[in-house]
Amino acid sequence: MNLPPPSEHQARIIWAAITGLAIAIIVALVVGFVWGMGRVLDVLSPVLWPIAVAAVLACLLDPVVDFFERRRVPRTRAIGMVFLIALFLIMGVFSSVVPRLVVETQDLANKVPTYVAKLEGKVIYWANNPPAPLRDLLKRFGVKLPAALLTSEKPAGDTNAPPDLVVPPKTQPEGSLLDQIDRETAQKAAQWVGSAIKSAGGWLGRQFSRLTGFFGVIAGLALIPIYLFYLLAEKRFIAENWTVYLPVRDSQFKEELVFVIRSINDYLIAFFRGQVLVAMCDGVLYGIGFAIIGLPYAFLIGAVAMIITIIPYLGAIVTCVAALLIAVVNFGDWQHPLLVIGVFAVVQGIEGYVLQPKILGDRVGLHPMVIIVAIMTGTTLLGGILGGLLAIPLAAALRVIMFRYVWKRESRPE
Question: Cα-flanking dihedrals φ and ψ of residue 307, to 5°?
């Protein structure tokens, strides 16, 4: 049966359908590859995380080794000198910093139930007694509040700070805010805040326990110096000969593959070398700033910030929220949370205008929105903190690939 050839309009529809199907298949393959990579990372994490830590440390210490080598020190001896300096630094940190971290961590862990109870009480108190600025703001936006709430005066001896454990009295004045917001709803909201804090701690614990067991951690820590030594010692050999070991014959495809791998490697080195230094500076600044305003556990918050602020934006948000919760629970006023926000703003300003331009520069070159989306996607697909760390350099490498093959067309001769 002979069919007539498709018309121009039908041909466009057919080609559009084929193009859409091809795009859907490519997207499905990419999603499947990323999902599979996440599962592989999850299974092989006890093997991969010591190598990943050693690679990051090699990126940080390689300039120091090169510095000694430029002073005519043999590379092996230079690596030994760097290891010796690092050993003295680690011993100094363990003797001065770790004991205080252990004490503050134990104290905070013991006080978590009390803090949760205080936070629940404060949420209920603020639901019944919103501050005057909030009432004015609600009134400005046309929200009708009960007349008794608008004209209520503070009882004698009342202070700005709510009590530590506030339980709303059973007899509330008529027309209070709880007449519009059900007391059971406010109670559930307060319990949800407390359970969210507990869930966050439980999530971190599950991530660490899933990463590896106790003996796996000990073995991994013991292997990190060995991996680090060989990565530093064989740097030149790896840099000059790694392309020989690619299972691909010499061709244009191999040249493109080498370009892609080098792009990913350059972004990995640039990101980790710069972001780790930025995170260390942020942790020190947070610790000093929170200590100046008198925030409890400022030392612990600064130490944790050194680790989690390696993930841009997400680490800073977690640090700020944790400091705000501690300020609210311990002081119960508005001044200390505002001081926490002030410290956060100052540190972010120093990071954005001083640290990142000097340390990172424009080597990653991603828009902040792209970084946020990459972090959320990486933590979801690749799994946990490791996925969030790898998401940004991989997104930057994908940007290079897209500019090379998709977004940039070859210039035509005039």
Answer: -90, -50
What span, in angstroms and rounded, lies between the C-alpha atoms of 396 and 51? 22
d(CA 326, CA 302): 14
Residue at 310: amino acid letter: I
Token pair for 160: 């700005």
In sequence order, the 6+-apart residues with CB closer than 8 A to the CB of 44 are none
CB atoms under 10 Å from CB of 191, counted, come to 13
Q: Cα–Cα distance between 380 and 96 in angstroms, integer?
A: 37
Q: Which amino acid is at 107?
A: D
Cα distances from 183 to residues 145, 176, 187, 188, in angstroms, run 16, 11, 6, 9
- The tens digit of pLDDT for each residue in 205-217 reads 565 555 545 566 6
Tokens of 205: 């614990």
Per-residue buried b or exposed e for 263-279, using 16+ beta carbons within 10 Å of the residue's own CB? bbeebbbbbbbbbbebb
H-helix segments, 44-97: 45-70, 75-96
Given CA atoms 77, 78, 79, 81 in this order, what sign does their dihedral have?
Answer: positive
Q: Specify the pLDDT at position 182.
A: 54
Please give the pLDDT value at position 223. Answer: 85
pTM of the predicted structure, to 2 decimals = 0.61
Contact present, 149 and 129 (Cβ < 8 Å): no
Q: What is the dihedral of CA 385, 387, 388, 390, to 10 degrees?
A: 120
Q: Tell me which residue has tokens 């495809």.
A: 253
Query: Counting beta carbons within 10 angstroms of the beta carbon of residue 409, is it exposed (0 to 12), middle (13 to 18) or buried (19 or more)?
Result: exposed
Task: Please compute, for residue 377, the number of CA atoms within 13 A of its CA located in the half-sphere on the CB side.
Answer: 15
How big is the CA angle at 207 (ends 203 and 210), to the nearest 5 degrees? 130
pLDDT tens, position by position, 111-128: 777 877 777 777 777 666
Contact status, residue 79 vs residue 68, Cβ threshold 8 Å:
no
Q: Name every residue whose Cβ is closer than 8 Å to that of residue 131 and which is 6 or more positions away in sequence.
A: 334
Sketch the domain layout of the chain as residue ranges.
246-414
Q: Cα 130 from chain centroid?
A: 33
DSSP label of 99: H
